Amino acid sequence: MVVVEGDMLPKKLPLWNLVVAREDDEDWSVGLRCPCGCGQRLEMLLLKDMKPRWDISVNPRGHVSVHPSVWVREGCKSHFWVRAGKIVWCE
Predict the structure, then answer these.
(1) Which end of the chain, N or C, is less surrounded by CB atoms within 10 Å?
(2) What digits encode the pLDDT tens for the residues 20-61?
(3) Contact, 6 vs 21, CB < 8 A?
């Protein structure tokens, strides 16, 4: 996981890492490139008052999980979980 300061994610996201936009110790959003390989930029809001919204957690080994699942409704239609730093595809 890479943390960037500010309320916006960078325009270009890395290939293999999640990026968290954090401002004043508050997480705003998490982003990643679609793991199916299509390259689509995915951004999930983390702010408590937003809907839909996601949560992130980091286990003691430093592996990130994202809750709930990520479902790409347009384009590749990927549906997956990020669990302990790994992509788990939904059937």
Answers:
(1) C
(2) 999 999 999 999 999 999 999 999 999 999 999 999 999 999
(3) yes
Question: Where is 80: in which H helix or E strand?
Answer: strand 79-83
**Element of type H or E holding 88:** strand 86-89
pLDDT tens for 63-79 read 999 999 999 999 999 99
Q: What percent of the chain has pLDDT over 70?
A: 100
Q: What token pair was written down for 24?
A: 């004043």
5, with CB counted inside 10 A (0-12, 13-18, 19+), is exposed
